[in-house]
Design a protein that fits this description.
Tetracycline Repressor, domain 2, mainly alpha, 10 helices, single chain, DNA-binding transcription factor activity
Length: 214
Amino acid sequence: MGRRKDQEERRRSLIDATMAVIADAGPSGVTARQVAARAGLSPAAVIYYYPQMDDLVAAVRGDAVQRFCVGRERIAEECADPAEALPRLIAAGLPSGPEDLLISAIAQLFGAARREERHARMSTGFWLRQVEMYTRLIERGARTGAFRPLLPAETAAEHLVGLEDAYGVHIVSGNAALTRERALALILAYAGGVLGLPPSGDAARSGGGVTDPR
């Protein structure tokens, strides 16, 4: 068990190092040497655990899916009240701050989508899954009377995901005029208006976020 735990921790450290490399240099910068330098290991150790660098990039994509899809779907399922789930989902969809390396890495992967089909597929699937999550929540809220949508559920869902993505880039870029708190307030205001639900400040005060599934 001890050896298995050590191996899992080593793999985790390599994935985190890869995330930092992608955030700085994009997916094309992921080499055994660059990852090793970030992780404080030898290139041989990187290759031992991940002979193909594409597998490390895929692991970073997997982290994104776990955090922004799986984790948020869990929130939506656990909250009986759609109006309670909504601000939590929005808060969890934003970067923690300028230092959020996963968001920076995702932005780099999206930027590479126009050059490589595998990244384009990831971008499309990532978008569709999040839109579906919000669409289901909005439809449930409309059925229960928690929401009175002014737009079709899928259209409102697309707006929410688009706002998270757009504001997220500003947050990780260090835009002092658009902090996480301000972005959260703006999206909550939009959601309140389009869904007939007054925005709540609870998520902004709590910081939102999802439990790390690792």
